[in-house]
Amino acid sequence: MAITREEVLHVAKLASLELTDEEVGRLTGELSAILEAVSKVSELDLADVPPTAHPLELVNAWGEDEPRPSLPLGDVFANAPAREGDLFKVPPTA
Amino acid sequence: MIDTLRLTAEEALGLLERKAVSSAELHQAYLNAIGERDGELHCYLRTVEEAEGDGVPIALKDVISTKGLETTAGSKILAGYVPVFDATVAARCRAAGLPVIGKTNTDEFAMGSSTENSAYGPTHNPWDPTRVPGGSGGGTAAAVSAGLAPWGLGSDTGGSIKQPSALCGNVGLRPTYGTVSRYGVVAFASSLDQIGPVAKNVRDCARLYAIVAGKDPADSTTVDVPAVELPEAESLAGLRIGVPKEMNEAEGIEPGVSAAVQRAIELARELGAEVGECELPRSVEYGLACYYLIAPAEASSNLARYDGVRYGLRVDADTYYGMVERTRDAGFGDEPKRRIMLGTYALSAGYYDAYYGQAQRVRTLIAQEHAAAFERFDVLVSPTSPTVAFRLGEKAADPLAMYLSDLLTIPSCMAGLPGLNVPCGLSDGLPVGLQLIGPQLSENMLFRAGHALERALGFDPVPERLR
User: Fold this and answer.
1) Is A59 part of any domain?
2) Does residue A73 belong to the interface with chain B, where contact is any CB pair within 8 Å?
3) Tell me, what CATH number does B53's domain have?
4) What is the pLDDT of residues B118-129, one digit of tens each?
5) Inter-chain residue contact B318 with A91, CB threshold 8 Å
6) Is B405 a catalytic residue?
7) How many domains does chain A have?
8) Would the CA dihedral through B413, B414, B417, B422 be positive or negative?
9) Residue in chain B nearest A58 by alpha carbon
10) Considering CB atoms only, which of A19, A41, A64 is closest to B362?
């Protein structure tokens, strides 16, 4: 199961990672080896086996629907890299 | 003079109750020990100078949010991040009066089996500092073994509590999924992540589990937990122990590890247990592949939150998207990147069914195989780690070799089962861990079995070179 350089670049885009050329080269090899190993799961015919998303059979785990105070704004922005008024500030999208 | 090397949490509690020492003196004794030995071992990323609380101090893995105390998950992307709230487990420790001694080192985002993936440098094994302490919770495990904390909390996704405990020679519990709140703990793979105690012995481990376990309205995956019973009995009469063939004969298990585990199983028989062989054929053969699809898939989603907007590192760029991509490339180390890439690929259009979907079906199979074994047995035993502590750098360049460290801890994690590591001897002067696996919510049984074995084994948890 080899993964190509183009696929690595495509997945990096999906994952919002700007990889360096060196990283792209290294990951192409590493991911190919790992994918080959994990592809082992495809050896099994499991058409009749239901998938497990979660180890507990919890049903209707409701919480109390009661209003509570939110975090104070000072706390919300305490770790923010950039703030403008009561908003997180980011560069323009285009 | 307090000798922290041998002091158990229960003994420390006795000293406090008799007012032989104060909590502040106890805290200071651990800080002194850290001053003496942590320069070499690097268990702690930061320590707390003033004891807050009147109980036995505790070390917390740096994935656990602590209000007002920097929490980095071993990553540069969270450097300088100071939580504005406590994780539920940290709040429970505070409520029980346990002062936090410090935050312990971890593989970045708890991804690793050696603590070498920490962005802040590796932790060293107290039994032999040229070797790794295991991971990802190597900081907590090494701190407990080196007398730098009486007990601590770790987190376990595929072995991050049990494997370091095995490599450092102490007791670690990965509890049943859902028994300990994950609220406020930096997420890796949410359907697998569990918080659990690490201690010098089984009773301490049970005591700490009793403090942190329980349903939490802030984590809807938590369940009601049976009252914790401190183990007393020294007999194993009536206990049915299953020895899964594949978990005990897997390729890669070192002969010295196998021998120590065999001796522990013989001892269990002498203590009155019935021992029989069983099988988990596909759990071992396909468990690792299943895990390395599901855990990275969930990680790729969980780690999407590190985008330079609300907290953590930001690397500026002209556009928002450029900022996010640069921030993530600069902030994440190699292992998180590998897993984000692997998980994103496994979840991407055209591959989802073949990888993630198929892995979820394997997960069902693993749960079914364990359930079948528990029809005949109360507890399943195997080595925790196929090897003793390996040398720093030995596996760092080969991700697949590193992943094999968790071969024997992963299957039960996939099924949400509790697992306890109990040290069972030495091989070449390094600790060997025995893994006890039980059905969901069987922690009390694991404590009873582990305690009886521990008493009979008489393992000395203090590293030979520190005695």
Assistant:
1) no
2) no
3) 3.90.1300.10
4) 999 999 999 999
5) yes
6) no
7) 1
8) negative
9) B221
10) A41
Report the C-alpha gap between B89 and B466 in whole angstroms. 31
A9 assigned to some structural domain? yes
Chain B neighbors of A7, CB-CB under 8 A? 345
The active-site residue, picked from B65, B75, B113, B160, is B160
User: In the A/B pair of chains, how many CB contacts fall below 8 A?
Assistant: 182
Domain assignment present for A48: no
Check CB contact of A60 with chain B, cutoff 8 Å. Answer: no
**Using only C-alpha atoms, what is the Rg of chain A?**
22
Spans of chain B, pLDDT less than 70: none
Integer Cα distance of A15 and A32 in angstroms: 18
ipTM: 0.96
Retrieve residue B297's tokens: 């898939």
Task: Give the tens place of pLDDT for each residue, B208-230.
Answer: 999 999 999 999 999 999 999 99
**Is B103 part of the annotated catalytic residue set?**
no
The two tokens of residue B190 are: 């949410």
Which of B312, B365, B399 shows the shortest C-beta gap to A30?
B399
Residues of A in contact with B177 (CB under 8 A): 55-56
Model confidence band, residue A63 (pLDDT cutoffs 50, 70, 90): confident
Is residue B288 a part of any domain in this protein?
no
Contact B58, B93 (CB under 8 A): yes
0.95 exceeded by the pTM? yes
Residue range A41-62, pLDDT digits in tens: 999 999 999 999 989 988 888 8
Q: Is A56 on the interface with B (CB under 8 A)?
A: yes
Query: Mean pLDDT, to the nearest integer, of A66-93?
Result: 96
| DSSP bridge pairs for B426 | B431
Within a domain: B408:
yes
Based on the residue annotation, tell me whether B160 is a catalytic residue of this protein: yes
Tell me the per-residue pLDDT of B332-384, one tens digit each, with 9 for 90 and over.
999 999 999 999 999 998 899 999 999 999 999 999 999 999 999 999 999 99
- CB contact under 8 Å between B178 and A7, yes or no, is no
**Nearest-CA distance from A65 to chain B in Å?**
11
Task: Give the pLDDT of residue B113.
Answer: 97
A-chain residues near B348 (CB < 8 A): 11, 14
What's the CATH number where A18 sits?
1.10.20.60
B251 token code pair: 């390729």
- Do the domain assignments include residue A25? yes
Check whether A94 has a pLDDT greater than 90: no
Q: Which of B179, B160, B210 is nearest to B447 (CA)?
A: B210
Is the CB of A59 inside 8 Å of chain B's CB atoms? no
The Cα of A73 is separated from the nearest Cα of chain B by a number of Å equal to 11
Please give the tally of structural domains in chain B: 1
Helix (H, G, I), strand (E, B) or coil at B420: strand
Of B417, B415, B450, B414, the C-alpha closest to B433 is: B450
pLDDT band at A1 (very low <50, low <70, confident <90, very high): low
